[in-house]
Design brief:
The chain is α+β, with helices and mostly antiparallel strands. It folds into 3 domains: about 90 residues, no CATH class; about 110 residues, no CATH class; about 90 residues, no CATH class. It contains 13 helices and 14 strands. The strands form 4 sheets. A 5-stranded mixed beta sheet has the order 8-9-10-11-12, with helices on both faces. Strands 3-4-5-6 form a 4-stranded antiparallel beta sheet, with no helix packed on it. β5 and β6 form a beta hairpin. It starts with a helix and ends with a helix. The relative contact order is 0.09. The structure holds zinc ion. InterPro entries: Cro/C1-type_HTH (IPR001387).
Amino acid sequence: MDDPLRRLLTRWELQPPRFDAYDFRRPQAEFLYRLIDAAVLVPSTPVGTWDCADCGSVCRLIYVDQPGGGQRTFAACPRCGPMEVRSENLRRYEIDTGNLLDAVFRSYRLSIERLDPVGLWRVGRGKIADRSREVYFVRSCERGAVSTVCDVLGSHGKCCVFAPTRASSRTLSQQLSCVVIGLEDVIDWQDHAFLLDDDAINGRFGSLETLPKPTKSKPKRSTRAAAIEALRQELNAHIVAAADHAFDTEARTGTPVLLPRPTQAELAARINVSAPTLSRCMEDRSAPELRILWDAADDVYEVMKWRKLAAKNRR
Ligand SMILES: [Zn+2]
């Protein structure tokens, strides 16, 4: 994923989700200017203090009105004396969550509404995995908001919850019975617009609903498509085994233990392809579910979650 996009999503988890002059100095500030044009980033309170570039002291800011109108700003360094600070270096911008949700989820039927003061939002409805589903969004879920989210969403088993980052989606996923997706796994920035990867999103619901039977014989020479299918089956089978192991160890010891994920070299050997072919399969844009399965296999709570979803889907 593009780096500025990841930074935007990471910043969205913070309170306030703010950008200052430092962010605009980095390369690809153009991305942030686009977001300002789209009112996704809106002006925030200006910087209140300034760090002296020479000695590092925290300086008070002094605003001096100019005779012809306008204002100049000086940082009063206790050691080096006053120095002028350019006004563009004091500007700060904050993410307008409602507007960013609007820009990200424009392919859904939107009814954006803030449901609690911290970070739970209703987004609307979207057609996901052959079903119209309620879509919710949660940001900065580490800040004690998880229990509120659970109270509101506890009974919405078939809804889809998005969080900005993969890390927070995993935290939430452990608490909620519905599917939680980290936007960083499924979003791209193309032609000055956000683009959601519908296949990857559907894949979170679909992979275990269509669990294929294990193949009897390994293909000798695989085309890419055959290798992808074989890899999907291997990873699915591993997750099923890992879930068994996790529930079993949890029942015996109180703590679920993760069955080690096979390495990519081991997987390549199992499906009888070369290591480079395997990594090309993993990167293949037509098979985003492979990356999702691969990540899930490395997280004990994810594999347990997948089992619960699979059981629910069979009912
Ligand atoms: Zn100084």
